[in-house]
Amino acid sequence: MLGPFKRVWQEYLRVYQNVTYVRMLVLGILVGIFAGLVAILFRFGLDSSQDFIQNHLAGLSAHGSNGEYRPWVIPVALVTVAFITGFLVDKFLPDSIHGVTDGTDAMIKAFHQNKGEIKPKAPIIKGITSILTIAAGGSAGQEGPVSQLGAGLGCWFSHKFGLSTKERRILMLTGAAGGLGAIFLAPLGGAMTAIEVIYKEDFESEAIVSAVTSSVVAYSLFFIAFGSKPMFEIPEFHFNDVRELLFYAILSVACALSGWFYVRTFHFLKYSVFEKIRQRLGIMWAMVAGGLIMGVYGMFYPEVLSSGHHGLEQAINGNLPVITMLVLLFGKTLATSLTLGSGLSGGMFAPALFVGGMTGGVVGFTANSFYPHIVSHPGSYVLVGMATFFAGVANAPIGPLIMVCELSKGYGLLAPLMLSGAFCVVISRKVSLYENQVENKFESPAHIVDSTVNILENLQVKEVYQRGRVTILEESITLKALTNIITGTNEFFFPVKNIAGEITGILSINDVRNILYEESLFDLVVVGDLARQSVTLQEDDDLYTALVKFVDSDLGQIPVVQEDKQNEILGLINRADVFRAYKNHLSTIHENER
């Protein structure tokens, strides 16, 4: 009775066991489990550390009440964390702060430049120091270190299972998607952001299946540990008046301007201030300087400490004046640049959402004061500003849009989110928060082989080979006769046939150059002894197949034969013809794109 079922099951396994999507789906589940567990540990560590430093020691929760308030703890804590971080980074990861924005950018760099390789100690050290930095009050987010931890897990699993470089890159994004989906309780937004943020105008489509799977699994585990309570306690917003699109367009312009200021401020402090300190005094003292300035700043203005989620919730619910939101916009930009620009650990995502939210709040509540009959829910502009701002600075219009919809538990703002995000991406074309982003797959070393293969697979041998008479040698020709033949021709490669007219090999002049005039061998050596193994191509073969045969045989020319008559030689194809065809086709593509 079980026979038919067994045969069907065996056939199913036979068909699917080598399908990449199936393998990556299974690996996505595995990586998602561990990414979820890592995200849970990170959140537990951050919550307990932040409560101990900011509430128990500094008494920030007692600020404004009769409890003991010790703001001086913040600069002391941040300087201490700076010493710890500086020591660990200087000793184990001295190159981790050069040309990298945060953990997400480090993942992007590994994807494009390091073949998907992430040293295991890097995410571990960055994860621990990020917890300490955020807990002590540093203006940074959780998503950078968590995505780097997830990416590190993906890389580790790829080595354990002996995966290829291409699969390692995909699994790295899979782990990052799991971390993002869990920490933000936004499975689809986390997955899309992970595969989208590595390019400015593209996304890694091959990682969609495993990224979504990993994100859902990690999100589910995080959900079990912390519940489904949304990040913000806010009302449900809906877009009802088409006239509001004008104000959302204004919002996109405002986000583009604040995004430009955000990125320029960060780069100025990182490279014009802290980089000079690093060069003169070392990594540790640059971090200590940043930690001290940030700590003193946060001591007098605690609203800019850590991620700032509470401030966003207040803005959404209309509890912050416009002038306060404007001040927080600039204040958070400065705080984040001091923290991460000095080299301290953390992510850029959460601070960017904060600045974007405040930008949206300024536009929304200002518009509401003049046109209350049109802009009736100004708090919605805070949410749209979050997604729009990050879309502009990260060149990622889809992931943040979906993530904000998931954070707000609804798609009532989908139309303005799409419009504002698209506008801001276009306006912010030359602004990029992540230093290692590339334009698209054609610009990425990760896809240089794919690009070459795709072009050559579209061209055929019959388009480039040289038709005509070919000098063919018989196996029985002696070395003496061969010398006379070579003297009367300019050719360097000769197909060889046996007495039956079958192609049995190819003779290269380079192989006989050393013995060509050895008279003692003239009658002893024949062409059949000197020829290499036979290599042929057909007219319908693509040029990638030709390239592989050229590389494997190390020949400069290969005979082209008829499909139905394998021993009938039509002409020769040169190795230079393949490269010339590739160059010409690539030039045509570029011309058509202009």
TrEMBL record:
One matching Pfam family, short form? CBS
User: Known InterPro entries for this protein?
Assistant: CBS_dom, CBS_dom_sf, Cl-channel_core, ClC, ClC-type_chloride_channel
Q: Give the way it sits in the membrane.
A: Multi-pass membrane protein
Q: Does this UniProt record's set of keywords contain Transport? A: yes
Location within or outside the cell: Membrane
Q: Which UniProt keywords apply?
A: CBS domain, Chloride, Chloride channel, Ion channel, Ion transport, Membrane, Transmembrane, Transmembrane helix, Transport
- This protein's name: Chloride channel protein
